Amino acid sequence: MDLGTEVEETRAGILAVEPFCVAQTPLATYYIPDFISESEEAYLLQQVYGAPKPKWTQLSGRRLQNWGGLPHPKGMVPERLPTWLQVYAEKITSLGVFGGRSANHVLVNEYRPGEGIMPHEDGPLYFPTVTTINLGSHTCLDFYHPVSRGQQTEGEEVSVPQTEEQRHFLSLLLQPRSLLVVREEMYTRYLHGIRPVASDTVTEKVANRGACGVELGDTLPRGTRVSLTIRHVPKVLKTAVLLGRRK
Ligand SMILES: O=C(O)CCC(=O)C(=O)O
Ligand SMILES: [Fe+2]
């Protein structure tokens, strides 16, 4: 089955989360408050912090754990997800957001107040649906128009100066225990990032503020946030172990 067909199937399967569609987003964003309970949140945080120390990679502005294998253009060498993640990977798969395929990859990110992630695209190694379980603290996920390309002048591309603020068109407030599903254009066309700030103020750009019970002008101090980004990596290598050829 090619990826196009699967994206079509996702469109049909997505009905489970349809009631949670964020109205103001151009396309395909779903925000589900209280997707997990407080005790599930505590359990997941305990598992994240109980992981072996070498599992953490420190980056500037955040640290992360990679589970399921390292996505690679030639294919990911799959690793079995630990049970505590497999349970949630299956729960999210059952929402039909990966077009009949199963979540097989989880990135755990930890951000302290003042930390964030630069605007970026997640790239072609993932199925174009990303799902995020939010733990510990809220954050504000910002979406940006890509830098628009200028006119061709004598074969040279001139980039039009645009500030990050001008390109920032939408934010989503991600409260602890919520699930975010971002797919299609919101994933493939726009960039996303988290500003490295210690608190967020609710502005008109926060498209899901109605679902979060916050008011314009509210200021929310950030605590330490842990996100579980659960995805499907389509290109997976069959390992010798899976083929039963291990000697
Ligand atoms: O922590 C998040 O919600 C965003 C993480 C992210 O964008 C990524 O890991 O690619
Ligand atoms: Fe990302």
From TrEMBL:
UniProt superkingdom: Eukaryota
Gene from which this protein is expressed: ALKBH6
Organism: Sphenodon punctatus
Protein name in the entry: AlkB homolog 6
Record-linked Pfam families: 2OG-FeII_Oxy_2
Required cofactor names: Fe(2+)
PROSITE patterns, alphabetized: FE2OG_OXY
GO molecular-function terms, A-Z: 2-oxoglutarate-dependent dioxygenase activity; metal ion binding
Keywords in alphabetical order: Dioxygenase, Iron, Metal-binding, Nucleus, Oxidoreductase
Compartments where found: Nucleus
GO CC annotations, alphabetized: cytoplasm; focal adhesion; nucleoplasm
Family (UniProt): Belongs to the alkB family.
Fe2OG dioxygenase domain: residues covered: 102-234
